[in-house]
Write a structure and sequence with these properties.
heterodimer; A: about 120 residues; mainly beta; 7-stranded mixed β-sheet; 11 strands; globular; B: mainly beta; 4-stranded antiparallel β-sheet
Chain lengths: ~120, ~100
Amino acid sequence: EVQLVQSGAEVKKPGESLRISCKGSGYTFTNYWINWVRQMPGKGLEWMGRIDPSDSYTNYSPSFRGHVTISVDRSVSSAYLQWSSLQASDTAIYYCARRYDVTGFHDLWGQGTLVTVSS
Amino acid sequence: ETVMTQSPATLSVSPGERATLSCRASQNVKNNLAWYQQKPGQAPRLLIYGASTRATGIPARFSGSGSGTDFTLTISSLQSEDFAVYYCQQWGLTFGGGTKVEIK
């Protein structure tokens, strides 16, 4: 089965670091870019950035550049979203999604990871 | 950065009726526009890509049209399972703010 499976929910304190993961299976992981999308509580979808697993090339939205890092480990078919210092405003559900082709649409989504940042 | 604007924010429709959702881009995105459906507690699901091509398994009552800056998603006869939030996205980048389709 073709799927993206994300790591479980996290509860963190402000200032802590965090890395969440997205594991692809059922397809050739390096053939498709992986995107990260944020959804704050009760709000819409925000595109954060993407990575090409074949060479680790990344693009970031200006809104997120410098605040998060996207990486990949080809050996375990996984992409990661990382924070070095969380803020309460990072509380959200984070989705990974596969880019189907150069037009960019997301044909396959992970189930989402809820990140809660609270003191 | 291309800004995507969806209207209306909320659409109240009776089951069996037609729903028309709009999405406008701040600059020309050609036909590189996708639509997604999101139900409460679920990840988004791809409905339409290339402005008008239905994704695998999407019922024919969903149709997309438009190019350049103005796009439309039409649901010809709303079923109970169609009440959800719908998002447009350009070039796999910025999303619109969403349209919630609710039961009238």
